[in-house]
C-alpha cells in the first residue's frame, strides 16, 4: 500500500511539473482558436486542418469544457465534412471569399483524432449522436485506409497519393496507440488490436541513421523492405516527435521501442543546443533548440519511462500552435497515465 501511494504521489508531482510547462487552456483557446471554433496553425499561413480540430476537441473534453468542444466540433462538421464519406478534408485555407477547403483529401490522423474526441465527448456528456459519428469515421478508416503488409495492417495517411506499384507510404506518427483500445470497444473489429501490433513492429524495423530513429515518412515494399522517401523528406522530424508520447500514453512497456528516442535526447542533455529533428541520411541535427513544447513532450516521456536524468520542462512559452499543442497533450497524457 505504501509503495502504491508513493508511486501515485511521484506521478502526481510529475504531472504538476508538466502542466506548469504547458500553456493554460484559456491561453491556448485565446491564441489559436477563432470565435467560430477554427484551430489556427499560426506557423503555416494560418490554415486549419483536421488534426488541429481533433486535438482541440480532445483537449476540450479533457478539461470538461463542453462549450469549447461544441464550438470546435460545429466548425469541423460544417467546414471539413465535405466529402462523400465520413472522413474529413484535411486542410482549410482562410484566404479568398471567407475561406474554403484547400484539399479534399483526408488526413487519417486527423480523422482518428476527431473520432477519439467524439467518443470521449459522447461518454462524458451522454451524446449518442457523437458516438454514432465516431463509429462512422472508424468504419470508413477500416474500410478504405487499411492495406496488408508483412508487419500486419498498414494505415494509409490519406485516400489519395500513398500507394504506388504496391509500395505503401506510411507515417508512423499516425498510429494513435492510446486510442486503439477505445476504438475497439466502440467499433469491435480485429484491426484496431492488429494496428497496435503492426505499429510496434514497424517501429522496430524503421530505424535509420546514427540514433536508429524512425522517419516522418517511410515506404513499405510488398516484401517488407523499408526505405526513406527523399521527395517527402528524410528527417526524423516534427511528425515523428509525437511517436514516443503516443507509446507512453498507451502504456506500452517495451524498452526497445523507446531506446532510439532516449539515446537521441540524452546525447544533447549537456549541450548548448537541444535539437528536435535530425536528417537520417547524414545525422545532421537542427542548429537551434527544439521548441519548448517539444522539449516538454520529451521530458514527459522520460519521466514516464522513469529516466533518472529526465530534465525539468522548460519555462518558456511556445508562440505557435503545434508545439504549444504538444505541451498540452504531454500534460494530458501524464495525468492519464498517473491515474
Automatic annotation (TrEMBL):
Keywords: Carbohydrate metabolism, Cellulose degradation, Glycosidase, Hydrolase, Polysaccharide degradation, Signal
A matching Pfam family: Glyco_hydro_8
Top class in the EC scheme: hydrolase
SUPFAM superfamilies: Six-hairpin glycosidases
EC number: 3.2.1.4
One term of GO molecular function: cellulase activity
Catalytic activity of the protein: Endohydrolysis of (1->4)-beta-D-glucosidic linkages in cellulose, lichenin and cereal beta-D-glucans
Stated family: Belongs to the glycosyl hydrolase 8 (cellulase D) family.
Full protein name: cellulase
Lineage summary: Bacteria, Pseudomonadati, Pseudomonadota, Betaproteobacteria, Neisseriales
